[in-house]
Write a structure and sequence with these properties.
Helix content is 37%, strand content 25%. It is of the alpha/beta class. The strands form 2 sheets. Strands 6-7-8-3-9-10 form a 6-stranded mixed beta sheet. Strand 4 and strand 5 form a beta hairpin. The longest helix has 18 residues. The chain is globular, with a radius of gyration of 18 Å. The chain starts with a strand and ends in a 7-residue tail after the last helix.
Length: 244
């Protein structure tokens, strides 16, 4: 579980986050939505410790990341998996080697057990026959699957996904959404997803957080988004223009 309390972030005289309070539970896909400039990226970067907040706390199962020293933060980050918008695979490594990479750096497993772990992961994401292929030889959807396998290689407690469906066709997007949801529920991960994809919001959003001008405008499940959402949420999901 990740608990956010009174999170604020300012850059000089510009306040980007204005006192956000929310909780992201384990075993749930938590989606952060909002139009451009709402503060989504700063919010996620603050959560993973890349940007220090101006005020507030970010508790990972009772551990406040804001108060951590660099050594403790490095230890916590080993419990985090990251799925980047562009997949961020190493072009010089094949699929198998990309997934193996974090295990080589941080896992206490033996070399043979690391390789077996990669085989298991590739099978789980449907890439058991693609291990020897390089990123330039596979589709965008396969690249995202490789990136997911790499992100969960170390059995993270927390998974952060930045626009996981960016650049994918609708069928591939649905497939990636389904995979993220299944892995989250199977492994009881606290998953945070930054997205603009309303199909994702409606299909896998155990919890949805809508940011507007740096504030938490609404939170709830995808099932109640249209029936209980604020007027601003309803305009957003129906692609209406919001007043600036």
């Amino acid at each position: 579980m990740i608990e956010i309390k009174n999170l604020k972030k300012s850059f000089e005289d510009r306040e980007v986050l204005k006192g956000i309070n929310c909780t992201f539970n384990s075993g749930e896909v938590n989606l952060i939505i909002g139009r451009s400039g709402a503060g989504k990226t700063v919010f996620m970067k603050s959560m993973i410790g890349l940007i220090p907040p101006t005020e507030g706390s970010i508790d990972y199962d009772g551990r406040n990341i804001v108060q951590m020293n660099k050594k403790t933060l490095r230890t916590l980050r080993r419990e985090m998996g990251m799925l980047f918008q562009g997949s961020a695979l190493f072009d010089s490594m094949n699929v198998f080697e990309n997934v193996l990479f974090p295990l080589q750096l941080f896992s206490p497993l033996s070399r043979s057990d690391q390789k077996q772990r990669v085989k298991t992961l590739l099978q789980r994401v449907g890439l058991e026959d693609a291990g020897r292929k390089y990123p330039s030889e596979i589709s965008g959807g396969m690249m995202k699957r490789t990136a997911i396998a790499r992100a969960i290689a170390l059995n993270p407690k927390y998974l952060f996904c930045d626009e996981p469906n960016s650049g994918l066709d609708p069928n591939s997007s649905l497939s990636i959404d389904k995979l993220i949801m299944e892995i989250t529920h199977e492994q009881n991960i606290t998953t945070i997803v930054n997205t603009h994809d309303m199909n994702s919001v409606r299909s896998i959003g155990d919890k949805v957080v809508y940011l507007l001008h740096g504030e938490l405008n609404w939170e709830g499940s995808s099932r109640t988004l249209e029936s209980e959402g604020t007027p601003e949420v309803k305009m957003f999901i129906n692609a209406s223009e919001l007043p600036i």
